[in-house]
Amino acid sequence: MTRVKDGKKCPPRNSANSLRYKTTQHHFVAKVDGIGLAPLRNSMIMKLCYRQHPPAIANPSKPTMKLDAQNLHVIYEDNHLLVLNKPANIVTQGAELGKPSLLGVAKDYIKWKYNKPGNVFLGVVSRLDTRVTGVIVFARTSKAASRLSEQFRNRTTEKRYWALVEQAVSPAAGEWTDYIRKEDEGFKVRVLRQPDARSKLAKLQYETKFVADAGCLLEIQLLTGRKHQIRAQLAAHGKPILGDKKYGSRCAFPNGIALHSRRLLIQHPTQNKTLEFVAPTPLAWKNFGVPELDA
After folding, report:
1. Which among 8, 36, 265, 295 has the fewest CB atoms less than 10 Å away?
2. pTM for this prediction
């Protein structure tokens, strides 16, 4: 079925850059494999289509491309939100002097796109590790920052990660409960099977999505939010993430590590609807036999 916006056809669902959606009056789902989304209104139903295809330079797997305001991979934006597909090897915020941060580049994007002089407000409501890719949300207003921070703090958001490990996990799906303790040496954490005075509970659920010669793809949902939790727990259970030398991987990965923030579900901070964003994996993942599977 052809969908139309302002007299222009949107990409069909079976195209390479397809957009899948389902909506009700109070539940809005954007399954996004591109950027620049705009709402269509038909009575009480909202539908989405692309304004344009994502630029080729915006793929997070391009290590030689300097990230700047004009090639930032924007998944979604409105007056309150900016949702990005984070590339590898850039900190979310707090970069060393002379090095970029995703927050800084995102602010430059707002200035560039909207021709805003002076300082731009963007609130950091969640973070991804430097070497991790995928969906991340910034708040464009202080009200949105406060309400989104509360959602993440109360764990009413839903986040799914994809991780590539060397070998298949048995059983293929399950839940792991461990304890994590921060270690001063090497800015690492240590996984314990029994708690001690300095450790915190760490729980996650995993499901095998795909098995190939080059590795096994897991989908992971965190039930607690600890520093390096996915990386440390997978390594402790004998399945380090590809490229994650800090936690014992002996396999090279082209850019960053094979951990990707795949899907994020939040409540819009000012509107009565749920937003769900899906970030495409970097091109490097396809070299390991990973298809672009449904979320």
Report:
1. 8
2. 0.77
